[in-house]
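Q: What changes when NAP is included in the input?
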Amino acid sequence: MPPNSSIIITGASGSLGAAIALQLTALYPQKYHLILAARNISSSHSEALSQKLTAANAPYTWERVDLASFASISSFTNRIQLGLERGQVRPLHGLVNSAAINNIPVSKTEDGFDTIYETNVLAPVLLTKKLAPLMKGGVVVNITTVAHELGEAGYFRERKSDLDKELGTELGLKDMLKKYGSSKLLLIMAGYSLQREDSFRDIKVISLDVGGMTGESRLAPKMPLVLKVSMHVLNFMRPLANMFNPATINPPEVPAKAIAEVLGDSEKAIGGGHYILDKVAESNAISRDEEKQTENMKEITSDLGKWVQ
Ligand SMILES: NC(=O)c1ccc[n+]([C@@H]2O[C@H](COP(=O)([O-])OP(=O)(O)OC[C@H]3O[C@@H](n4cnc5c(N)ncnc54)[C@H](OP(=O)(O)O)[C@@H]3O)[C@@H](O)[C@H]2O)c1
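A: The predicted holo structure follows.
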């Protein structure tokens, strides 16, 4: 029997994205057609995932999308819409916004925004806004991190006018974490706002903090040595560290299972909720401020401009 619905995973060629695809396949064999979105759909990473999914007889297709380009996102969502209209794409049940980027020298997209802001915030919101009208129920999962607590709601707005002057600047550890954390803070806030919109009445938008992850993440191409060492130490102490906080450090399969279960058991998922792995837990105070959320969504909508009309 063909799968009765489909799930889109961005960053599917990444460490977490691939693990989500494999967990969905293991927990719900044949239930979902996986639409694996990646910038490079013929990389060694996408090939490796394809081999595992093919061996498991999982239904999947790869779709090229560059999340640092509104035009590319728009072309992707148009292809999905056309596929749904023609019956070539199974009804859409889920969207997992897993793709992200961190710690690159300051750079600007073709749309004129900071690349981290566009990839980590504007892109998932644009995807969600374009795809939600095509979904009849289902779940949107935004992947977040505890680093949102280091973020500032006004981070990108305040630096927008200086972007050209700062192009090429390499950030130190503290600034890198603040910038990445700010992008995740804004994504969490956007999720809460979207959940309040009328068009999301039947759709659950959740944020899921994956905790620390081992594995081959390419998130920060130049990971500072101090972070690399900390990850190794934490990984070494994992059994002890996870006794105090089960999200301290895990292989990607652990958060991937929590994400797959939220998608597979969507009736139980808490719309507008923030999870740490499989438990509902509060995000930080700023992210929960409704006024700030609305202000943030207004800015995002203005930045997305014609692409959301
Ligand atoms: N790794 C951790 O410890 C950790 C901790 C907390 C939260 N997270 C979150 O978990 C999620 C996945 O992280 P990960 O560790 O799996 O990272 P990863 O292995 O580097 O995967 C990130 C994915 O995003 C894709 N991507 C980046 N820029 C893109 C663009 N412009 N267009 C399309 N795709 C793009 C990458 O594709 P390319 O192959 O083309 O670069 C890659 O597939 C992220 O949201 C991250 O913030 C990770």
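Observations recorded in class: Residues 57 and 210 are 27 Å apart (CA to CA).
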